[in-house]
User: Fold this.
Amino acid sequence: MSLSSEPFPREGGVLYAEGVPLSVIADAVGTPCYIYSANTIRARYQRLEQAFAGVPHHIHFAMKANSSLSILRLLQEMGAGVDIVSGGELFRAHEAGFGGNDIVFSGVGKTVREIEQALDQRVLLINVESEAELVTIDAVAGARGVVAPIAIRVNPEVTVETPHEYIKTGEKGQKFGIPRDDVERIAALAMALPHVALKGLGMHLGSQIANAEPMREALPRLLDVVTQVRAQGHVIEYLDVGGGLAVPYAPGEPLADVDDYAALIIAATRDWGVQLLLEPGRFIVADAGTLVTRVLYRKHAAGKDFVVTDAGMNDLVRPALYQAYHDIEPVRDTDGAITVDVVGPICESGDFYAKDRVLADVHAGDLLAVRTTGAYGYTMASNYNSRPRPAEVLVEGTRFAVVTERERYEDLVRLERAHLQWRSA
Assistant:
C-alpha cells in the first residue's frame, strides 16, 4: 500500500498505523496497547520549527504529555529540548540523550533533592514559581558553590477558553506562576540573592487553546514585566511563551492555527533581544497515538446497550478525569450502527470511554481504536485494580517495534514486601 500523510489511514476497510495494520500489531503484542506514528511526531515538530524559522527559538517538548524514551529519543535526534516537571522526568531526559542545556525545569513543587539534581545536570533554566522556592534555590545553589540559572514564571492573569477547568493555568487564582504585579518585587529579591541569576521570564496559559487571542492579550503583559526587570539590571536572555496549542479530538474540530500563533509572537518579540522558548506537548504527540482495545462483551441492561472492552480508566483516564471526548473507531469496517456506552472492566462507574455514542455494530473479539491518545494517555496510566499497564508500540513506515513491554503480574508487586523487616523507633 502507499503510505498516507494521515497517521492512521483506513485502507480496504482496515485501520492502519502508517503502513502497518493495527490488527497485525494487536495480534503480535496483545491488547490494550498504545500505538504511535513516528512520522506524525516528526511532522508536527517540523511544523512548529518552520513557523518560527528566522527568529532565535528552541522547542522544549513538554515531557508530561508523553515521556516514552523512544519518543523522547526521536525528538532529541531532531534537535528538540524538553520541559520537565520532576526529578523522574530529569532522569528520563538524561537517559534519552538530552544534555543540561536542553532542559527547562518547571513545576510549583520542586524538592531540595530535585533542585540539587537540576544543578548537577546544569539545566538551562529552573522556572521559579514562588518567593519561597526562589529562596530555597538560592540556598541549595549556595551549598553547592554554584549560581543557579533561573527564570520567573509569570501568571499573566488572562481569561482562557479551554474545554475543562483543570487545563487552565494562566488565569488569576491559579497555583501556577507568580502574579504579574508581584514579579518586580521577586526579581528585586533575586538581584539581592548571591546564588541565582535571573535569565528568563515565561508563562503558560493552559491547554487546548484554539486561537491566538489569549496570547494577544497575555504577551504585552509579559513584555511589560521584561521591561521592569531589565530596569533592575537583570539580563533577560530567554522568553518562554509556553505551549497549549489545540489539537482536534472530535471529527471536524480544527487544529490550532500555528502560523497565526507564530506570527503574533514573532511580531511582538522580534526586537526584544531574546531567544524564544516554546513548550508544546499535546500538539506534537496527541493525534500521533491511538489506544487499541478488544471488545470483551456486549451487554444490555435497563434499556441501555454497553460495549465492554479490555481497556479501562487505568489505561486512559482522560474521559473520567476531564470528561474528555475521544473518537472511537472499529479497526475493521463493520456494518450497522448502535448507540452504546463504551466501558471498561474497572470496578468504578466512572470507567467509561464514551456515553450514548453512535458506534459501529461491534461484537466480542472485535478491535476498537480510541483515537488521539498520544498525549496524557500512557503517561497517566496506573495499576488501579492491580492491572498491568499496557504495551507501547512505535510505527515507522511499514515496520513497528515494542518500545515499552506490557507489565506482568510480577511487576505489580516487585517493590512490595509481604515479609516485613521491622525497625525500632
